[in-house]
Amino acid sequence: MAFTQFPMQREIVLTAGDTKVGVIPEISLVSHFQVGNWQVLYRASETGNIKRWGMPLMIPNFSRLKQGIFQEKGTILPIHGFGRNLPWTVLQQDASSITIQLTSNEQTRPQYPYEFTFTAHIVAGEGTLTYTLTMENRSDEVMPIAPGFHPYFAVSQKDKSDITIEGLPKVDPHTIQWAIRPPDQPNPFPHSVTIHMPHEGILTISEQPVDGHYSLSTMQVWSEPSTAPDHDFVCFEPVVTSEDGLNRPADRLNIAPHSSQQIILRLSAKPY
């Protein structure tokens, strides 16, 4: 589809050498990551479904909550949170970076009754995309949160079984029935995973420590069967914790009143 071609009208383009990053601030979407001729992140060109491409931010929750209920407050939160459904404000922008922000408002409080500021700083480097998420709790009580990243990595259906992975010993692409029974399970995330994409290059997904501390403990691996439209991707999703994690105090992040916490994710791509 021509309207999905990079860059689209509302896409802000960041560059560093032969690296290009696209960002759509109104839905906090990293919409494009390309190194040389390698388009690393998938774009849903068949359906144009913008929720099925790039690297959405899932905040304040990854995946589903049981019955959709946030038990702490008895409120309803949608799958993957509300961050990707609300407009973010651009605070800063230059040739290689952008900073966008979402602040608690009348739309967020009925679902998630905390005063917060979420800030995303996205930087294009030589062969890298670095995403720094700052979560500030401006409330007088602890703010539970369990965000994650949902990157769609472009790979054709016929090539999925030829992917090789370092760092996820329980995921063997050679034995997965990608066409009929693709994976959808959480795995321990050892802070860095390296993926060899057939014909394209080597991709590393890593969390950078903040004051020696890591926040992303889980990597969800997911794809679609060949019967689904726009299936030429595999998601390797670094998240704080697995499904319903916002309702598990020991697994989620618990940000103290009037303090903040940061997560830094880096994608590095080296074409063959």
From TrEMBL:
Query: Where would one find the signal peptide in this protein?
Result: none
Q: Which InterPro entries match?
A: Aldose_1/G6P_1-epimerase, Gal_mutarotase_sf_dom, GH-type_carb-bd
Coiled coil stretches, renumbered: none
Q: State one Pfam family annotation.
A: Aldose_epim
Q: What is this protein called?
A: Aldose 1-epimerase
Originating organism: Dictyobacter formicarum
